């Protein structure tokens, strides 16, 4: 005579884990539970890798923001770019749209809007 996993007598042709199922071990319920566990494991692994990627991107964002702020510090400490205009005039920083856009982007990022 065979027994289930709890030590109870097991009728012939029934699952050891699910004695109410008239299938031999592993029964369809065992297989379904195994698939669910595998899917949960794959999902948690994907979430782990996604979290690593989020942390990496967050760190890169901070580094890029710091680099942009450092570049804008240079523009704050100088008048403009000498030699940009072919006539010899200094191109002042407010002539460059990208400088204003950089300030606006920093403002959005620090405010959490972006």
Please provide a written account of the structure.
With about 110 residues, the protein is mainly alpha-helical. The protein has a domain at about 1-55. Helix content is about 55%, strand content about 5%. It contains two helices and four strands; from the N terminus they run ββαββα. It has helices spanning about 30-75, 95-110; strands at about 1-5, 10, 80, 90. The strands form two sheets. The protein has a two-stranded antiparallel sheet with strand order 1-2. A hairpin with a 5-residue loop joins strand 1 and strand 2 (about 10).
Précis, in short:
The protein is mainly alpha-helical and 114 residues long. It has a domain at 1-56.
- Taking all Cα atoms into account, the compactness measure Rg is 33 Å
Fraction in helix: 55-70%
End-to-end CA span = 69 Å
- Total number of helices: 2
Spatial order of the strands forming the largest sheet: 1-2
Q: Unreliable stretches, pLDDT < 50, 5 or more residues?
A: none
Shape: rod-shaped
| Structural class estimated from helices and strands | mainly alpha
User: What is the percentage of strand-forming residues?
Assistant: 5-15%
Characterize the main sheet.
2 strands, antiparallel
Mean pLDDT: 90
Number of strands: 4
Give me the strand/helix succession: EEHEEH
Indicate the topology.
Elements: E1 2-3, E2 9-10, H1 28-76, E3 80-81, E4 91-92, H2 97-111
Antiparallel strand pairs: 1-2, 3-4
What key attributes describe this structure?
mainly alpha, two-stranded antiparallel ribbon, two-stranded antiparallel sheet, rod-shaped
